[in-house]
Specification:
5 helices; single chain; 100 residues; mainly alpha
């Protein structure tokens, strides 16, 4: 996500917009600050598509020692797939900037 946000910003001043509209919602909807089950159903559905929520679930499963295998099977698989897709997108966007 960091490389994609870097590729989206053309100069340093634009990074504030990228942070406000891309990175900040990642943190707020990941379950770090606010509990996911207490959010509205629509917000929960949107949060499931963000990669950080799955990393938080993996960490919580390890720290709380609950459902570790099931969490790694579900959230770990989703996190790996999202990482592959996001890395491919970041590579395409950054390589265009490095060549130009």
């Amino acid at each position: 996500m960091g490389l994609i946000s870097t590729a989206l910003a053309n100069n340093m001043n634009q990074f504030q917009s990228v942070y406000s509209f891309v990175l900040a919602p990642l943190y707020f909807l990941s379950g770090i600050f606010f509990l996911i089950p207490q959010m509205a159903p629509g917000v929960r559905l949107v949060a499931e598509f963000f990669p950080l929520i799955h990393g938080v679930r993996l960490a919580q499963a390890i720290f709380w020692q609950r459902d570790i295998l099931q969490t790694f099977a579900f959230s770990g698989t989703i996190l790996i797939v999202q990482s592959i897709v996001l890395c491919a997108i970041a590579y395409r966007k950054i390589s265009k900037k490095l060549i130009a």
